[in-house]
Amino acid sequence: MRLLHKAAKQYSTGPWLGGLKDLASRAVFYLSLLNFIQISATFYYITLKPNYQWFLPWVSFGAYFGILMFLVLIVMFLEYKFVIPSTYMFLNRQEYLHQNLIRKDLRRLQEKLERIEKKLDEERDGSRNNKPS
After folding, report:
1. Where are the domains of the chain?
2. Using one digit for the tens of pLDDT, what is the confidence trace for 22-47?
3. How far is CA 110 from CA 64, 89, 106, 122, in A?
4. Angle formed at CA 53 by CA 51 and CA 55, multiple of 5 degrees
5. Taking CA atoms, which of 24, 36, 49, 120 is between 20 and 30 Å from 98?
6. What is the rounded CA–CA span in Å between residue 122 and residue 119?
7. Could you read off the pLDDT of 86-119 as tens digits, one per residue?
């Protein structure tokens, strides 16, 4: 059980690794758009048009690409509706658990607030005890 716990533990490498991965994944988005268009055209002219023109003569490249864009919109809708909320829940949990600067600031503020409340309580108790009966 101890080995499993060690294997499942997450380690902090600082912000550089996450920053590099984030930047690379943002750049890949633009490259994947070009890749998607090229693969779509290749599939249409090499596979779809020669093999299915007798069955789907109405499918021009424009219609085919329009259908693909419609499918992309459906996938984007499903991502927006279901996957993004789950992703943010996961990321919020990760941020809360691992050296979150806001969490540290909140902890310091909570400690200060508790000290202030304690002083106020002591002053209130002191003023009650000093009242003439």
Report:
1. 12-80
2. 999 999 999 999 999 999 999 999 99
3. 59, 24, 6, 18
4. 95
5. 24
6. 5
7. 999 998 888 777 777 888 898 899 999 999 999 9
